[in-house]
Design goal:
Elements: E1 8-16, H1 19-52, H2 54-61, H3 70-85, H4 90-100, H5 112-130, E2 147-149, E3 158-160, E4 163-166, E5 169-173, H6 180-186, E6 190-200, E7 203-213, E8 228-233, E9 237-242, E10 247-252, H7 261-278, H8 300-332, E11 337-341, H9 345-351, H10 353-359, H11 361-375, E12 378-382, H12 384-387, E13 408-410, E14 416-418, H13 419-428, E15 430-431, E16 434-435, H14 437-456, E17 490-494, H15 500-509
Parallel strand pairs: 8-11, 11-12
Antiparallel strand pairs: 1-5, 1-7, 2-6, 3-4, 4-5, 6-7, 8-9, 9-10, 10-17, 13-14, 15-16
Helix pairs in contact: 1-5, 2-3, 4-5, 7-8, 8-11, 9-10
Length: about 525
């Protein structure tokens, strides 16, 4: 019987390492990579043997049946028997890793707990491949394994007071005594410790992630609101309507993140020229790469260019993560029930690849669900086929499909609103998988001026660029044709009587997003 899992949060601390400690850490991370590859090779070998056996093939031929039925239990028991016969289980791989790796030179650098956690990672990747959840797992190349963790805080990688102890190493952590978030994490029970390696400006930096028991620290300004909040999320826009707050705003999604597409593209062209100059024999006369095995040479300047491109991408990811967390906290302050459409973010990637690569709307929804679960807030995702919020009119019930170029909802009954804001309002009125038209009619008289006020502030000038066409408004901007160059483009409003949540939202909007420090 599995133990009930307790709530968990992560407290991250930067480590201050000497040059000698950095060399030892680099060696141990590389040894861990080789140990992981050995465990993965053994897991794949056992999986291949099991698939060739008659026991496994007979189990595959058994009918699936319904969940928890007799047929399903018989099929599961057959697969378990095949796994046990060929040692394709997590603890079987633990035993193999403890016997094979610990008696070799690899075991001189790693403790048994770390080795077993690496075996668990290799087994889980192979198991996902076996059931068709993911593709075939790949072996880790050099500098491709950047995290190590222990099984508990009692052995192996351990946290003690203000430093990490690990097989003779004492790694001091940088702790801010005034930070309440860090103080809350250090005051909680630590389950285990994870060491993370990141590259900042081309140099490796090490961090300690304390996996603590309990709930993360909640700041005073991040109080939980009451009521239903409707969200309409697109590849480049975010519309939020909270009738009970009351508040509505329309934002260009991740507008504060100014992507440096031209800079990255210029550096990539430079890196391609350097690659061609360093390897002229690997290219055909027409500029294409020759087929077959090739040896690629990389100059020091090409490595510098490659590190610069990686640093630009890292900065963008840090900005995006900060903006996601800030916007999620703002939404949670508006209500305790969040409702949004269940859309395909892979479809977003296929149709709006560049925009999704910069803004990551799927990651935003993941952060929203995680934080809402920790705060006890309900997040409801409903089907777009059943509700059809972008096509239906709540007043007369007319369903009229609209192309993506049509950004306004205009109905013969007199309802007129911006498409994204109107969909967010209807999302707040969804009950289960159906739109509650009676509730929408009751709330419309108070929400209509709220949506109009949200659009009234769009005429205020912003710093450079122009609003995207998905806003559905024509505003004079600078002649720039790239919407991602624009600065902060926020359209938000509230009713004449401001609420506490609205004032806090206004304060947060003017607050700049903290940038990841260059350590």
């Amino acid at each position: 019987m599995t133990r009930p899992q307790s709530t968990t949060f992560i407290c991250e601390l930067p480590l201050r390492l000497s040059s000698a400690d950095e060399r030892v850490m680099a060696v141990r991370f590389d040894v861990a990579r080789q140990s992981y590859n050995a465990c993965l090779s053994e897991a794949l070998r056992r999986l291949a043997l099991m698939r060739e056996s008659k026991v496994y093939q007979a189990a595959c031929k058994l009918p699936k049946g319904e969940k928890y039925s007799r047929l399903a239990k018989e099929r599961t028991a057959a697969f378990r028997f095949a796994n046990a016969r060929f040692g394709f289980r997590e603890y079987d791989l633990h035993a193999w890793a403890g016997k094979q790796i610990k008696r070799q030179w690899l075991g001189k650098h790693l403790d048994i707990n770390t080795v077993q956690k690496l075996a668990t990672r290799a087994f889980q990747a192979t198991q996902d491949y076996a059931v068709g959840k993911h593709g075939r797992p790949r072996f880790k190349g050099r500098y491709q394994l950047d995290s190590l963790e222990g099984k508990s805080n009692q052995a192996g990688i351990r946290w003690r007071d203000d430093h990490i102890e690990w097989s003779g190493l004492h790694l001091a952590a940088s702790i801010d005594p005034q930070d309440k978030v860090i103080a809350h994490g250090l005051g909680s029970r630590i389950k285990y410790v994870r060491l993370v390696r990141r590259k900042l400006n081309g140099y490796p930096r090490y961090f300690a992630q304390l996996v603590c028991e309990g709930l993360p620290y909640r700041k005073e300004q991040n109080s939980i609101g009451q009521g239903v909040v409707g969200i309409d999320l697109g590849p480049s826009t975010l519309a939020v309507v909270a009738p009970n707050a009351p508040m509505a705003f329309l934002k260009q999604f991740c507008a504060e993140l100014i992507p440096q597409h031209k800079t990255i593209r210029r550096w990539q062209r430079k890196m391609d020229r350097q690659r061609r100059a360093n390897n002229p024999a690997n290219y055909n006369t027409n500029g294409t790469v020759k087929s077959g095995a090739r040896v690629w040479r990389m100059s020091a300047r090409q490595r510098e260019t490659q590190a610069g491109v990686a640093e630009l991408h890292r900065q963008q990811a840090a900005w995006r993560k900060g903006w996601h967390g800030q916007m999620v906290n703002r939404i949670l302050r508006l209500g305790n029930v969040i409702q949004l459409e269940k859309v395909s973010y892979r479809s977003f990637q296929r149709n709006f690849g560049k925009s999704v690569g910069v803004r990551a709307p799927g990651m935003f929804v993941s952060v929203l669900k995680r934080k809402a679960e920790n705060a006890g807030i309900q997040v409801n995702e409903f089907s777009t086929r059943m509700t059809r919020l972008s096509q239906v009119c709540h007043q007369c019930g007319t369903v009229a499909p609209k192309p993506l170029s049509q950004r306004w909802h205009r109905c013969e009954c007199g309802i007129e609103a911006q498409r994204d804001l109107y969909s967010a309002f209807l999302a707040a009125c969804v009950d289960g998988e159906r739109l509650d038209a009676d509730q929408a009619k009751e709330l419309w008289s108070g929400v209509d001026p709220l949506l109009q006020a949200a659009l009234s502030r769009i005429d205020q000038p912003t710093s450079g660029g122009r609003l995207p066409a998905s806003f559905g408004v024509s505003v004079r901007r600078s002649p720039s044709r790239s919407p991602v160059k624009a600065g902060v483009k926020t359209v938000e409003a509230q009713v004449a009587v401001p609420s506490q949540h609205a004032e806090m939202g206004e304060l947060e909007r003017d607050r700049p997003i903290p940038r990841t420090p260059r350590l």
